[in-house]
From TrEMBL:
Coiled-coil segments: none
Taxonomic source organism: Paenibacillus montanisoli
Gene Ontology process terms (BP): DNA damage response
Gene3D superfamilies referenced in this protein's UniProt entry, alphabetically: Protein of unknown function (DUF541), domain 1 (3.30.110.170), Protein of unknown function (DUF541), domain 2 (3.30.70.2970)
Protein name, per record: SIMPL domain-containing protein
Pfam families referenced in this protein's UniProt entry, alphabetically: SIMPL
Lineage: Bacteria, Bacillati, Bacillota, Bacilli, Bacillales
Length: 217
C-alpha cells in the first residue's frame, strides 16, 4: 500500500490493497472412484471391470443418487509388462474405469464410499468438497475486503495527519480464490471393512482481493 500525493490529476491519493475472507461449510461432495482390473486376457479384464462398475452404479442408484450425477470420467486400457534381466515380458492388461459421483448431502460421503467398495470398487481417486452457492460467500468476502482497504487507508491517513475521504476514488477487483479443505485421498481399497469410513468435510475459505484509491485533505 502506498501514499502518493500527486498521482491523479494533482489530487493526493492513498492506494491500498484490501483482503477479505469468509469460511463456509461445504454442501456438495465430488467423489471419484471405480474399479481397476488386470488379466492376461483383455476380454476378461474388460468383462470383470464392466461387472464391477455396473454393480457399483446400481448400488449408488439404490442410495437415490440421480443417474445424471454419476458419470464416467476415466476409462483406460493399459498393457502391463514385467522386466527380467532387461527384457520386457508381456504380463497382461489393466483396465481402469472411474466414476465421478456428485452428492448434495456431504454427510453421506462415507456411506457412498463404503457402498461403492462393498459393491466392487477397489480404487478411490479423490473426494473434494465444495459449495453450490459460492457467489453469496464471495460477495461477503468482497464486502470484508473493502472494509479492510478502508481500515488500511485510515491508518495511513492518521499517520500522515490528514483526513481521509471515505468514498474511494477507484476500486478494482483483483483476485477471487476458493480454497477447499485438503481433498481426501485414498488408493486401492479392499472389501470387508467393518467400520464406516469417517470423512470430515472441514471448511472452505473464500477470499477476495481488491485495490482501492482514496483521496484525502
Amino acid at each position: 500500500m502506498t501514499a502518493a500525493p500527486f498521482s491523479h490529476n494533482n489530487r493526493p491519493l492513498i492506494e491500498v490493497t484490501g483482503e477479505g475472507k469468509v469460511s463456509a461449510v461445504p454442501n456438495r461432495a465430488i467423489i471419484v472412484l471405480g474399479a481397476i482390473t488386470e488379466s492376461p486376457s483383455l476380454a476378461i479384464a474388460q468383462s470383470e471391470n464392466a461387472t464391477a462398475v455396473t454393480s457399483v452404479t446400481n448400488a449408488l442408484l439404490s442410495l437415490n443418487i440421480p443417474r445424471e450425477q454419476i458419470q464416467t470420467v476415466t476409462y483406460r486400457i493399459e498393457i502391463q509388462y514385467n522386466y527380467e534381466d532387461g527384457t520386457q515380458i508381456f504380463r497382461g492388461y489393466k483396465v481402469t474405469h472411474l466414476l465421478q459421483i456428485t452428492i448434495d448431502r456431504v454427510d453421506q460421503t462415507g456411506l457412498v464410499v463404503d457402498t461403492a467398495v462393498k459393491s466392487g470398487a477397489n480404487f478411490v481417486s479423490s473426494i473434494q468438497f465444495t459449495i453450490s452457492n459460492h457467489e453469496i460467500y464471495y460477495n461477503q468476502a468482497l464486502s470484508n475486503a473493502i472494509q479492510n482497504a478502508e481500515s488500511k487507508a485510515n491508518t495511513i491517513a492518521r499517520t500522515l495527519g490528514v483526513t481521509l475521504i471515505r468514498t474511494p476514488l477507484n476500486v478494482t477487483e483483483k483476485t477471487r480464490v476458493i480454497e477447499p479443505p485438503t481433498p481426501f485421498q485414498a488408493s486401492l481399497l479392499t472389501e470387508g471393512a467393518t467400520v464406516p469410513t469417517p470423512i470430515q468435510p472441514g471448511e472452505l475459505e473464500i477470499r477476495a482481493v481488491l485495490g482501492a484509491q482514496y483521496t484525502y485533505f
